[in-house]
Amino acid sequence: MAVILFIGMSTALAQTGGELQLAELTKKLQLNAQQQKAMAPIVAERNQKAKALMDNTSMGKLQKLRKAEEIQQNFRQESSKVLTPDQLKKLEALQAERRSKLMGS
């Protein structure tokens, strides 16, 4: 279920493009110019890894789940170097909201 959720989120992310994702993060987290510049490669790396995971047909569901968790953990870790504690809380809330919507809650 989590793999399907992650793949669904990754597909949605890939469809919106890195620039739109960064624009959304900028608006919702109120990123300043320096933070926007720092977050751009973090978002791009996450998207690239998520796409590679979706395209990988040699991994089983459990392996994909573990890799998806690793990708998200890395994204949070890298984001925490750029964002303020308040922005991190907002990011976590945004991600939780997306997970909820994808699961149909």
Brief digest:
With 105 residues, this protein is mainly alpha-helical. It is 85% helix and 0% strand. The chain has one domain (2-102).
Structure description:
It is a single chain. Helices cover 85% and strands 0% of the residues. It is mostly helical. Helix 1 (2-29) packs parallel to helix 3 and helix 2 runs antiparallel to helix 3. The chain contains 4 helices and no strands. Residues 1-5 have low confidence and may be disordered.
Features:
about 100 residues; mainly alpha; 4 helices; about 0% strand; disordered N terminus
Helix content: over 70%
**Main sheet specs:** none
Number of domains: 1
The SS-based structural class is: mainly alpha
Strand content: under 5%
What topology does this entry show?
Blueprint: H1 2-29, H2 33-55, H3 61-80, H4 85-102
Helix pairs in contact: 1-2, 1-3, 1-4, 2-3
